Amino acid sequence: MCAELGLHVVLYDAKRSVGRKFLVAGKGGLNLTNAEPKETFSEKYSGKSPAFWHGILDEFSAQELRRWAADLGCETFEAKSGRVYLKDLKAAPLLRRWVLKLKEAGVEFRMQHRLLDIIPGPPFRLLFENGTQANSDAVVLALGGASWPDTGSDGLWGVFLKKLGLKISPLAPANCGWEHDWAPEVLTAAEGKPLKNIRVIAGNKSSAGELLLTHYGLEGGPLYALGHSLRAMEHPSISIDLKPAHSIEQLVAKMESARKNFADEARLRWKLSDAAHALLAGRNCPDAVSLAHEAKNVVIPFKGPRPIAEAISTAGGLCWEELTDDLMVKKHPGLFLAGEMIDWEAPTGGYLLQVCFSTGTIAAHSACKYLKERREG
Ligand SMILES: Cc1cc2nc3c(=O)[nH]c(=O)nc-3n(C[C@H](O)[C@H](O)[C@H](O)COP(=O)(O)OP(=O)(O)OC[C@H]3O[C@@H](n4cnc5c(N)ncnc54)[C@H](O)[C@@H]3O)c2cc1C
Questions:
Q1: For residue 26, which of 116, 122, 90 has the smallest C-alpha distance?
Q2: Best label site of 131, 200, 363, 371, fewest CB within 10 Å?
C-alpha cells in the first residue's frame, strides 16, 4: 500500500530470500487463519484485552486475509476444526505471487542485509552487517521472534532496540513441548505414542486434545494452549485427565470384578491407549478406586520448556507500553513494529499468522499516514 501511494519502499532482509519461516509454516499445510467468530478469536491472544485484539483484527480480518490470498490465486478452505488452510496446502506459490506483486508495485528487495543498529531519526539511519547504511523517513520492523533461527528470525534485534531506550520483555518459547524425565519402562512402552481424548489442566486453565509422549517429555496442542500458564508457574506441572468423559464412580464400576493387576484390567475395561496404560502402570495403585483417581489426575512435573529454537513461536518482545495503538514507537515517531517482535502470544490454529498480517497492515497504514502528514507539513 505504501508503494501504491508513490512512496519509495525498500524491503531489507537478513537472509538470501524472504519468507523462510512462512515456508516452514507451510510444510505441514499452511494454516493461514481461523474461521472462528471474532468475539472468541480475539480471546486467543495475550498481552492486551480481547477488545484491543478485536480492534487489531478489524483492521485486517480473517475474511480479508482469505480474500487477499484468493486475489493472488490461492484459494482457502475451512477444516472441521475451523482452521483455514490454503487449498493446495503449499505456502510457496502464495509467497512467490506476493513477492511478484510487491515488486510490480515498485518495492525494492535487498537481501542479505542484516540490520545491526538504528540511529534514531527521522531520517533514521540503518546500519547493516554487510557494511552498508541507508536513511529512511519511516521504518517498519517485522523481524520476527527467536524460534527457528535458521529462517532468519534470531531475536537479536533486542540489542539495538534496548539501545533506543525501549523495554523488551524476555523472549521465551511458546507453542512448544515440555520436558519430563520418564522412567525407562514408560519410554520403552510408549515413546512416540499418543494420549488421545484427554483433558490437560495447568493452574486454573484446561485444554482438551491429544499429546505425544516423546523421549524428552510431552508435545502437542493442549500444551501449546497452556504454555502461558505453565511459564507463569514456579514449578510447572500439568494434571492429565485420561478419561474426561467418565466420572471416578463410572470408572470404578467398570472394574467391579477385578481383584489384581488393576492397570492391566483397566487397559481393556477403560479402553486405555498404550501411552495411557504406561502412565498408570508405573503408579502401582493398590486398588480400582485409587487407580480411577489417578486416571483422572495424572500429575506430570516439568523441568522446563523445550529450547526456543525448536518452538513454533515466541512469547515476549517489545512491551506494548512502548507503542501507540497505531503500532508506532512512542519515543521514536516514524518507527513502527509488527508481528512476533511485539509482546503477545497465541496458540496454533492460524492465530499467529493472522495477527502478523493484521499488525503488518496497521503498521504499514500508520507509516503511510505519518509520512503523508510530514509531507503536508
Ligand atoms: C514450524 C512452524 C510452523 C508454523 N505453522 C504456522 C501455521 O500453520 N499457522 C500460523 O498461523 N503460524 C504458524 N507458524 C508461526 C508463523 O510462521 C510466525 O508466527 C510468523 O512467521 C511470524 O511472522 P513475522 O513476520 O513476525 O516474523 P518471521 O516470519 O520470522 O520473519 C522475520 C523476518 O525478519 C528477518 N530478520 C530477522 N532479523 C533481522 C535483522 N536483524 N535484519 C534483517 N532481517 C532480519 C528474517 O530473516 C525474517 O525473514 C509456524 C512457525 C513454525 C516455526
A1: 90
A2: 131
